[in-house]
Amino acid sequence: MRDKKILFICSENSDLSLMAAGFAKMAAPSGTHVMAAGPSPEKAPSSQLIEIMKASGAEIKGLNVFSITDVTDKTFDLVITLCKKTWDNFPYFKGLPPVLHWDLNAPETGAGEKDWKTCLTCGIETLRPRVQSLFSYGYLNAFKEVKSNTDNILNSLSEGIFAHDLNRRIFYFSTKASQLTGLSPEDVMGKDCHEIFQGGLCSDNCAFCGTGTIDPFEVKNYPISFSDKKGKRKECDLSVVPLKDEDGKIYGVAASLKDNSELNLLKLRNREIQSFRGIIGNDPQMIDVFQQIKDVADYNFPVHISGETGTGKELVAAAIHNESLRRNKPFVPVNCGALPESLIESELFGHVKGAFSGAVKDKKGRFELAEGGTIFLDEIGELSKDMQVKLLRFLQESTFDKVGGEKTISADVRVISATNRNLKKEVQNKTFREDVYYRLNVIPVVLPPLRDKKNDIPILVAHFLSRITLINHGKVPEFSQEALAVMMQYHFPGNVRELENAVQYAIVRSRGKTIMPEHLPMEFSGINTDYGIKRGPSKKLDPQSVTEAISKAGGNKSKAARLLGVGRATLYRFLDENPELSS
Q1: First-last CA distance in the chain
Q2: Which domains does the chain have, with CATH numbers?
Q3: Strand pairing partners for 304?
């Protein structure tokens, strides 16, 4: 059986801790280790105290009192506090050992001779029978058994359980938590959660990142991702509940980790996932994007996102940041096309006081504000050649100069860029520098237009309706199948952003009733659907054009439909009516 460890602790008088440890050392069976902690670190007992304790039959010579901060990193089977001050300011020990509180009204260290003698008398008369009863009546074994049973219950759960105090110091870590993270309790006990899990587990949801009081909460649930000790990526659901004392004051949290890595991978493969980090969709092209986000998140290489206006480039950039180890650091988006040419250098890199007219004080630029995190340069193609040169320097050396400044500044910032232009063509046309292009385009991510993933339209519509319901605190009308069919046939030049606008427009036009095709914006006029709705002239198909389109598309009917400028349903219906074309 493992040796037992007992700690006696008094934050007012070190002598009490020594006396209790002395009596315990005298009464404890072999294999029991006793420690004393108090306000005087490494204090050896006085000769007078040694003599008085020896007369009482207890040997304390050789015992030392350790500081309270030194013993909080050790593990114990039982902790006994000896004064009210210790109990009120109790430090949470590793593994949550059982705690007994004996309030002996101890005088503070340095008190007068009379108080000190009173303390000794109290100790001899009160401490000795209490300490002896721990062993003679089997209390120590009972406490240890309760602790063992609690550990067995928590370790048998499929979720990993851990707990930390208000300073994020971990004081409990279950066996399953060790298996999930690859970290042993010895690796994490007493350490800051953010130190153990680089960037933190909770990202923006962390309630213990700032200073001051903790906002009350009952439970928090959210998905997280991290890399275990071996570098394997884990995707989990994290549930956090507050730990409260008798007065309802929060003193820490208990958290459970449920591993969903294999389940999420299976969902991705089977296209069962419909959203990821706020990005909605389950079209195969979007599933590929989700996987790309996961693949690139843990690296610091530059990422370039290309796609038409309204495809969600900033959402993807934010998802990469939030999946990465930088998630607890700033995400700074910059619309390069919205900044005046005269101010863009100052906005990106900052300026010093007096650098130009109006520079009345030093100012940090976006790169400096993004320190440790990610900067997202949207519409990167709008940068002038001069600014491209300055950006190239940062991409090569991670350094920049403020406008008017003489000191070169280094910054640890990941760069994600985006554009709706074809940057490769811009390079060929000499409007964008080739060296900057290749520095930005290390990892390309291409977002498909909505017209190429129309099966996501019903999912997106449902998402927008749900979000509007939450914002308006009330019920919103539903889309009829006829209205959805019209939307499925539309080409959406404005992509997802245009779809969201159309949903909002239709809600207003419908006046709370079911949304019909006539409630949609005028751009949707003239679309034929399976429901026989005719709102204007529509493109007609003929056997020759269909045959040519299918041939050009290599037999891919979805691509052929795009070449013909019709929806897939229209093409399939035409082929059903003309079966000879399918042979």
Answers
A1: 79
A2: 4-146 (3.40.50.2300), 157-259 (3.30.450.20), 275-446 (3.40.50.300), 450-524 (1.10.8.60), 543-581 (1.10.10)
A3: 417, 444
What is the rounded CA–CA span in Å between residue 112 and residue 495? 81
Are β-strands 331-335 and 65-67 bridged in parallel, bridged antiparallel, or unpaired?
unpaired
**Tokens representing 332?**
């700074």
| Ranges of H-type helices in 420-512 | 423-428, 434-440, 457-472, 481-489, 495-510
Task: Convert 309-377 into a string of H (helix), E (strand) and C (coil).
Answer: CCCCHHHHHHHHHHHCCCCCCCEEEEEHHHCCCCCHHHHHHEECCCCCCCCCCCEECHHHHCCCCEEEE
Q: Regarding beta strands 374-378 and 160-165, do their DSSP bridges make them parallel or antiparallel, or are they unpaired?
A: unpaired
Distance CA 245, CA 359 (A): 52
Gap between the Cα atoms of 170 and 190, Å rounded: 5
Low-confidence ranges of the chain (pLDDT < 70): 1-2, 40-43, 73, 90-92, 105-119, 121-123, 198-200, 203-204, 207, 209-214, 266-272, 528-540, 582-583
Q: Please write the tens of the pLDDT for every residue from 22-76.
A: 888 888 888 888 888 888 666 677 777 788 788 787 878 778 788 877 777 678 8
Query: Which residue in 355, 369, 440 sits closest to 409, CA to CA?
Result: 369
Q: Are strands 250-259 and 233-244 parallel, antiparallel or unpaired?
A: antiparallel
377: amino acid identity, one letter: L
Secondary structure (H, E, C), 70-115: HHCCCECCEEEECCHHHHHCCCCCECCCCEEECCCCCCCCCCCHHH
Rounded to the nearest 10 degrees, what angle do helices 457-472 and 481-489 cross at?
120
- 255-307 residue pLDDT tens: 999 988 777 776 666 666 788 888 999 888 998 999 999 889 888 999 999 99
For residues 71, 74, 78, 79, the Cα torsion angle rounded to the nearest 10 degrees is 20
> Is the whole-model pTM more than 0.70?
no
